[in-house]
């Protein structure tokens, strides 16, 4: 080594990633879960591209010390994920029922009628807004994926193809569009431009209007070891405490919150303009804020303990699959959704351990999963091939799936769920 040469930098597993919080701008230094390199989890691998290379990106979650927003870097441009999307909400029976109950509740609670306007952000295939259309309430969906928006329009739901943010909200305002109810189910986590998104809600919401947003609850994610819900299209992960901080920064007050069983444990927050005194704070707000404080939402140790449990669960699933393979047993997966792809790729699972996966969505059938390249078939393949185990990848729907596939037990087959711990039933 010459005098002008410098020694290479030492590698560190805990090195500062050089990323800044997407809400408050603070440099991120504390790791929450490092899941390695992954392709976008909702991408589709067509048969002709089975052996073609694919781009992979780091999947690493960090927590911001001041605001406690858990987040990944926006390494995959949202246009690459959402312009053509493979997830259609209408293929989940339980989710359709959830949407119907939501619409009935909002219409009753807030007195919505033919003079109201409902706007849903990331409206998917219109599964939720159909309920408002049937009730005679004007509505509009905002959906970035053109292929999914086409399905919504075909079902009678007016849909605008766009990525929502402050600029889009102001454009809608200039066209005379305002919202008495803004709905956003599982979209808050999907935006890399968090401040623009929340500012857009503020701009689009009519005086006296209400915005509701549903997202997986960070507390339940960590308590339930739900690391497979960390993936590239989920840029942020929220506690109620953090959501309050983000919305308050944009002049919006969270006046109520519901704890929901969906997606392993979710929150539905209710927001209004901060200067709207007509709606008092519900007791649920102070109660959940206090519960999160007791849980340790602002303590570094809470986040530091999560990685160890993730590692143990990965090892347990691999041990089960290796034992099954050693005994000559066959394993099929159910559900080609994002969380399943995260789990499979984080564990390095390939077709030698899970021979195939089935999914009800025709868009995904006769393709291959990204990364693992496990083939995807229609659900009927389970009954044709009769595997010994069916690994339920969308574990949050295990009851629904086990009922739909109950005939598996006729040949002695069993179901397996990987989260929060590996369980065979």
Automatic annotation (TrEMBL):
One of its GO terms (molecular function) is methyltransferase activity. Keywords: Methyltransferase, Transferase. One of its GO terms (biological process) is methylation. Transmembrane segments: none annotated. Residues 261-420 form the C-methyltransferase domain. Residues 21-82 form the Methyltransferase putative zinc binding domain. This is SAM-dependent methyltransferase.
């Amino acid at each position: 080594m010459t005098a002008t040469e410098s020694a290479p930098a030492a590698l560190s597993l805990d090195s500062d990633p050089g990323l800044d919080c997407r809400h408050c701008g603070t440099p991120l230094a504390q790791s929450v879960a490092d899941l390695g390199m992954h392709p976008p989890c909702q991408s589709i691998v067509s048969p002709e591209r089975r052996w073609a290379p694919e781009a992979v990106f780091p999947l690493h979650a960090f927590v911001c010390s001041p605001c406690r927003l858990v987040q990944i870097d926006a390494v995959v441009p949202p246009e690459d994920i959402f312009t053509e999307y493979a997830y259609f909400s209408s293929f989940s029976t339980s989710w359709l029922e959830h949407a119907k109950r939501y619409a009935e509740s909002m219409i009753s609670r807030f007195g919505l009628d033919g003079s109201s306007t409902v706007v849903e952000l990331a409206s998917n295939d219109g599964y939720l807004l159909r309920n408002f259309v049937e009730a005679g309430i004007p509505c509009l969906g905002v959906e970035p994926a053109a292929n999914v928006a086409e399905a919504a329009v075909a079902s009678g739901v007016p849909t605008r193809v766009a990525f929502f943010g402050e600029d889009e909200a102001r454009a809608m305002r200039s066209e005379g569009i305002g919202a008495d109810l803004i709905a956003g189910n599982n979209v808050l986590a999907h935006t890399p431009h968090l401040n623009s998104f929340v500012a857009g809600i503020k701009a689009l919401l009519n005086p006296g209007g209400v915005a509701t947003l549903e997202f997986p609850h960070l507390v339940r994610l960590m308590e339930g070891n739900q690391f497979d819900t960390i993936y590239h299209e989920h840029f942020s992960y929220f506690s109620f405490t953090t959501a309050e901080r983000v919305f308050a920064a944009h002049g919006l007050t969270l006046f109520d919150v519901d704890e929901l069983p969906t997606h392993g444990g979710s929150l539905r927050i209710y927001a209004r303009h901060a200067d709207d005194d007509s709606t008092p704070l519900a007791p649920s707000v102070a109660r959940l804020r206090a519960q999160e404080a007791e849980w340790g939402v602002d303590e570094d140790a809470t986040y530091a303990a999560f990685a160890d449990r993730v590692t143990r669960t990965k090892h347990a699933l691999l041990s089960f699959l290796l034992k099954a393979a050693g005994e000559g047993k066959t394993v099929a997966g159910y559900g080609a959704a994002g969380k399943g792809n995260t789990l499979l790729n984080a564990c390095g699972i390939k077709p030698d351990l899970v021979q195939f996966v089935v999914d009800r969505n025709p868009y995904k059938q006769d393709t291959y999963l990204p990364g693992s390249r496990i083939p995807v078939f229609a659900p009927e393949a389970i009954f044709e091939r009769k595997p010994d185990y069916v690994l339920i990848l969308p574990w949050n729907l295990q009851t629904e799936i086990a009922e739909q596939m109950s005939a598996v037990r006729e040949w002695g087959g069993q179901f397996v769920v990987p989260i929060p711990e590996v369980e065979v039933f």
